[in-house]
Known about the structure:
Structural class: alpha+beta
Shape: elongated
Radius of gyration: 32 Å
Strand content: 15-25%
Strand order of the largest sheet: 4-3-2-1-5
Largest sheet: 5 strands, antiparallel
Low-confidence stretches: none
Amino acid sequence: MKELSQFVTQNIWVNKLIWSIILLVLLMLVMRLVNQALHNVITDTNRFYKVRKILYYIASAFYIICMLFVWLEVAGAFTTYIGLLSAGIAVALKDVFSNIVAWLFIMLRRPFTVGDRISINGQSGDVIDVRLFQFSLIQVSTSGKGEQSTGCIVDIPNHYVFIYPVINSVKGFQYIWNEIDIELTLESNWQKAKTLFEAIVNKHTLHFTEEAEQEVRQAARKYMIYYNKFTPIIYTDVSRTGIVLTMRYLCAPKDKRQTRNDIWEDILRLTEEHWDIDLAYPTSRVVNNYKMVNPNEEVNV
């Protein structure tokens, strides 16, 4: 123990490292006590979250400044080992430093903020927290399953914003284009169906048009976003099994599934009321070319 004590006392690098760890532990304990006190005082969840994040950023900045004072004190001796130490730090702490730089990028450039729905590296969800080393999403299901919350929290390293594309569903423009394919039989009155379907899609989505136009005008000051049509539209196409009418309309990302549900329910009720409009489904036809023979007729063999 005496030798270990002398080694720690004489080795300035070990001494600095120990003090760095002690300061970090003390700071974490203080932050935990402060958070518990705030939780008892602040009852509003949103306000508590914002205050807690501000204190977290202040504590992080305080720790970084303290570390600068602690480690830069030995800058003279550092020159001897600068090459090896720099290489070691670059390899061992590459992701740590990348996460810190990425955190600064997220805070300043704001590719997303808390509450945005994003997709990155195959993960989709709503951003619920941004910290020094990682950000968290409340995961949502795939587009085919309605993009509903799964209840799972996904932690993603901050430096992923430098590696993978970030798809933000609400940045600059708060709405997305969604499409619904409706396939009718070839015998259906598709012109009548198209007119009735236009009324349905307008009923559920037309109110987004004016809001979307205003948002695009504001976003165009910062981004090269240009749309010349915001109202819902229905396109006509033909497949091997029927006539395809595709609804294209604007909706809020988080209301995508509910809007789709409401539209489909109206479509199903409409097809029940109109005998000449039928939804197509996989079918097969058997054509019998067998010629019926009169039993009283002689057949030459």
